[in-house]
Amino acid sequence: MAPxxxxxxxxxxxxxxxxxxxxGPMGAGGRCAVAALAAVLAWGGVAYxxxxxxxxxxxxxxxxxxxxVYIINFVFFIGISMAGTLISxxxxxxxxxxxxxxxxLAEAITLFALLVAGPLVIIDMGRxxxxxxxxxxxxxxxxxxxxxxxxxxxxxxxxxxxxxPLIPDLAxxxxxxxxxxxxxxxxxxxxxVGWRGTPSQYAALHRAITVMAIAIMPVxxxxxxxxxxxxxxxxxxxxxxxxxxxxxxxxxxxxGVAAVITAIxxxxxxxxxGQFITTDHIRKLGILLLVMGLAYVYFVVNEYLGAxxxxxxxxxxxxxxxxxxxxxxxxxxxxxxxxxIPILLLALPGRHVMGRIVVASVLVNVGMWLKRYIIIxxxxxxxxxxxxxxxxxxLMYVPTWVEWSITAGAFAAFCLMYxxxxxxxxxxxxxxxxxxxxxxxxxxxxxxxxxxxxxPSPTQLSTPSVMTLxxxxxxxxxxxxxxxxxxxxxxxxxxxxxxxxxxxxxxxTTHEEGKLVLQAAVRVDGKPATGAEVEFFxxxxxxxxxxxxxxxxxxxxxxxxxxxxxxxxxxxxxxCWARVKSPANLAGATAAAHLSGARAFVPRxxxxxxxxxxxxxxxxxxxxxxxxxAAAWGSYGYALIQIVxxxxxxx
Amino acid sequence: MKQERIDSGRRQLLRQSLTVLxxxxxxxxxxxxxxxxxxxxxxxxxCSTCPTTQALTPDHSLVSAPxxxxxxxxxxxxxxxxxxxxxxxxxxxVIDLSKCDGCGHCTAACSKMHFxxxxxxxxxxxxxxxSERTSPYFFPQPCYHCxxxxxxxxxxxxxxxxxxxxxxxxxxxxCIGCRFCIAACPYGARSFNWGKPNDPPEAKQAAYSAERxxxxxxxxxxxxxxxxxxxxxxxxxxxxxxxxxxVIYYGDQNEDTxxxxxxKTVRLTALLRDNAAYxxxxxxxxxxxxxxxxxxxxxxxxxxxxGDSHGA
Lengths: 651, 312
Hints:
The complex is a heterodimer.
Chain A lengths: L27 H27 L14 H12 L1 H13 L5 H25 L8 H4 L6 H21 L3 H9 L6 H10 L7 H34 L11 H27 L8 H32 L2 H11 L4 H20 L5 H28 L20 H24 L5 H8 L1 H4 L15 H4 L1 H18 L22 E10 L2 E10 L2 E2 L4 E7 L4 E8 L5 E5 L11 E10 L7 E7 L22 H32 L1
Antiparallel strand pairs in A: 1-2, 2-3, 2-6, 4-5, 4-7, 7-8
Helix pairs in contact in A: 1-15, 2-4, 2-10, 2-14, 3-4, 3-9, 3-10, 4-6, 4-10, 4-15, 6-9, 6-20, 7-8, 9-10, 9-20, 10-11, 10-14, 11-13, 11-14, 12-13, 13-14, 19-20
Chain B lengths: L1 H18 L3 H11 L18 E5 L5 E5 L24 E6 L8 H10 L9 E5 L8 E5 L8 H5 L5 E3 L5 E3 L9 H5 L6 E2 L8 H5 L15 E2 L5 H4 L6 H4 L6 E5 L4 E4 L4 E3 H7 L15 E4 L19
Parallel strand pairs in B: 3-13
Antiparallel strand pairs in B: 1-2, 3-10, 4-5, 6-7, 8-9, 10-11, 11-12
């Protein structure tokens, strides 16, 4: 029962100013932790330099497992970035009053997870030096571009959404009498944008936070969906599925809540925040984690049941690898640590509730990392085509020390950023705590105080619905926008062979019984040659197309049907030639002629349609992406205008 | 139309010039043809004192060039970037599985022509078998140069692109190495230069064009290029030309004709119609430009039927 003592309910209203103490110098343990993390990060840097020098050959990736741990980490960090949005924006919009002490912790996870995820993509690139090509030559048809837009939009939004609720606390830090380094004071002063806590400033702040809380939700859903679409837009078993988008979103919520609980437990212990973050918070987050876990079970069942039931083609191979083959250890470990054990820990009644919730959330983090592995690697291990003979053990993926070092470095970078942030600003929102405890004392704004958000205007509320409509329009357009084939120009004529001197062969076209025929007249010294076997050809780029063979009659002529359906040039002209095959004294005599009567082949000028594979993106896609970006950035603009108003109100 | 005539004139010139291509004159002509190359890669022809080195053209005729410069080999495309395609052409391939004995000459010839490292194959000879009771057969597999190419759809930077002549190529100067195309290609036709490329000196000497995979660049993708630079000279790709069984037919769909390495020229439509031709994994909707004739009435034993294990 001893550990439980730390989780006791605090006094009715703790003093938020006690949080200022958390910004003081770190203890020995803290310094050791930072030093260790910095060392791990540095080692990751060394590994990356090694990779830059020798290329991705230092990884275990190959032409089959063309993506590996880097992309797994990318998806994992994108996943936990969902935390801030759900815990903070979701709870804020729902008016959950218990959220105050944990919103900032969650928002910070979002930002730092994104700051790690972005570079991981660049680390995975074969040519990181050409990253700017994405901006210069970017093709909107590529889901990578969608991800770039979505990631930058989400990153900007999460910076703004983290920053807005920081403003009153930054002002408090600016005005505090505690001794601090001059740069710190200057930074607080600048970032506080002249916050004085006037009613108009509070009104502007609440407006901005509410709009951002609304805007960040569809953006967050978009980033998880679009990341899933990088996989979903390919023709690969396990990826090309309709469930993959929602699967990523729910998986992100699940791992995000787990990450928040883990972080909260750590900070609560290390920074002695027990009076602010109570057992009740962890209990509520535990329930949230349980709900998300059960939802994710539902998605996992959906993911595998259909494929396993129909057991069709490649999916059979893929599922065998996952359930019983090469990847089964990782898969069943994921099922146990990521789903079964945490859900049992969370759902079963009994003692040590807090400890169980924290253990469950740590297990979920591990399990969800493995889930990303199971999403990415087994699909790459199930190619449509068999391996060529002698290819060896190409269907094995065991990450190398470089990949593990960079992975460790990524996690260290995430933790370091988090710790430094917690030393720069209080990790718990002081003003929101105070506002929740004494609604009248701080918030004088008539329309926005306490837990409830202000009522946003109808146009702001409609942002998600506008985005939904645009998405539907995009799908409709893409569904209709199948590529059309292109046609080319007629072949160029090739010079004909010179006819023989003594033996003359004349090649012409004539009409026989209403049909166009190719006729050769063979003469020897001006007299018709009878019984000569003549072969007819049409000239083509790589060889001569046989048109038939015929034997000359008494008048020295022979005929084959003219290939009227064979494409000629634009005028329907064809390069034909004939050769005498026998008798021996005539053999080898040839004649060539440029004859009309073939199918006229009129080339179309290079008409690349607007298509997903073509250089130019379909109009619907342009409109959709443009509209979505405008909606998101428009909301950000509104929030920025509120910051300007706060600034002006100070003057 | 004027542009097309100029282009066809250029092809004519190219074809004629290649027939008279001597070892010494070749370099100058080749350089002239590739004159639109960036100046750095087009060395001066008047430098008689410069040390020279021998370089191979795609059809393995020797040209000499200053050893400090790049050899600009003739290109099929009208522009040196290799993006525009040969006007009026739509290259196409038909592979007759009934004649393939799995000898692997196609792979060897292709690898020699494109300096493909031994760990990689641009055209693979796979062994397929539909089910246990059906007979196994050899299956030469190049890039299919699909008309609805999944690789090209997903490329974020237009580094892999489809040309008007149907060819799907990769621009190694633009590729960022994200490997999305490798994941997207259902046929595994693409390879990645994971480490530093180990090209032979002849390949390093060549001026880069998207129409050729070399000189290779680290961190970029490569694959079968369908040999349009050979095609405009009226020459078959190495895989088709070197196949002793005449398995691989290649041609221009606009001419409705394909030719194999044994010199057999046939009507494309008739060949496809009369032989129950199919495209591999048609249900994926990628619309490959490579057709297969089914492995019926085979004249050679399949992979597991003969005692000879064909290099397995």
